[in-house]
Request: fold
Amino acid sequence: MDKEYQHKKRRPVSIDGFGVVSRQSRQTGSLDFKKGSSYQPNKSVHVLDNFQRKEGLSPSRQQSMKVNTSPYFKKEHDFEPPEQFKKRGKLSRLKFWDRSGKPPRTKKQKILHGLGIFAFIVLLILGFLVAKGYINLHRAFKGGGGAAALDANVDPSKLNGEGDGRINILLLGRGGDGHEGPDLTDTMILASVDPVQKQAALVSIPRDLYVNVPGYGSMKINSAFASGKGVALSKYSRITSDAVKKSEEEGFKVVSETVERTLGVPVHYHAMVDFAGFEKAVNTVGGVDIDVKTAVKEQMRINGKTYMLDVNPGRQHFDGFRALAYSRSRYTSLRGDFDRSERQRQMIVALKEKTISLGTLSNPAKISSLLDALGTHVSTNFSVNDLNRLYAITKDIQANNIISVGLADPPNNYVTTGNIGGLSVVIPRAGVGNYKEIQSYIRNTLKDSFLKNENSKIVILNGTNVNGLAFRKSEELKSYGYNVVKVDNAPTKNYNSSVVVDLRGGRMKYTKNYLEKRFKSSAVGSLPDSNIQAGDADFVIIIGTNTAVEQ
Reply:
């Protein structure tokens, strides 16, 4: 009987690493915070990253495992172009791989970690300019994306499924022309906006996460855009600006689909930025001011020159160059990338406040300069109208309502490092290619706005002879953020099709819409059996054999 199936949480099967990545990684230890650390966690869920070591997670000493890899992906940051491209003699013009064989950590990549977050604020800046009528059209706004949740009082029928009650934007950071692997997206962040509760979350996607890219094979997720763009570009006999544009569109399609399959949530829009754009934007608004809590001192190489970052506690002013340096610094910080993530959040708030201040945007010259700075460094599929709506929704989101989400933050530690075919990668702790735990975590963290707002009480009953079916279905619904209050057996076991019963007369219209689409059944208004005890439930779902067949 279903009610006898009690869910026991199991510790995920650990496959830590399949091998040691490097001596440096072995010396660093685990993800756990050091004993005696003065760190006190705040309400934010910190961004995943790598403390003070290159790969960031702690591998175990297990034997290396061979897994099929993409035919275009030979080693770290190294792509082999398709044969047809070689034959056409265009090898030197295809810039989506790095053949240097050098260690992957470059100064460009260090800077890129903050770019995804900055891309989010760039969108808000542009949205403000649209809303104020400063611009009606901009070449960065290609259009093509779409999120029903941008509309006020959205029609439930326009929501395709759970997750569409939020606005999800894939933020990508790349080096761009003049840098190694210019199309490798070493920053990947999913910005998710809750338009109902006025909240936002920034989900950091590890650049080395080993995934299956639809149509391209298994590779690091930061190579998905480059693979899609590169293969599409190789089909052109002449490399023109139009060919590059269309190839980039294919790259965006590939990386968006890959992220959707990996995280289990829809991607409605994308935005790509390079670090030059952010530096120019900060300079255009006259720099930003931040209250620094902890001193940061670090020597680094930027643009081929040695730079000493020296920031003392107190109110500090940052121009564009210093802002980038402050945002990328991590090696001298106690908690490495966790501290860097906090600094990036500070920079977001400071830039937002400075940019939308009357002093900045009442100056036509600054507005023009800001557009020039952003226009050549930002690419997005937002339309002008979409961006206008995004700004209207996000302008009132407070800093304490923007959380950072990582995949390796205890107790939500879902990934580890590994070595696959000699490639240093990040993999799920549940097993290579097993993203169920990650998907459940992300879906519940980015809970659909309308589901969360209605918070309907749901009872699930097993109307079949398949033991445990209702329990398994309840776990699936919980992973999408449904409020399942009871799981049991139906009084009878003769249900051929699943039944959705709406006991609130359509008042919880969004939950009703989602359940109807999930179970492929129009909701009825009364219970089919008087022996069913619904209690104070808003919906009762009776699982039929058609659902059992779909399992």
In short: The CA atoms of residues 143 and 506 lie 34 Å apart.
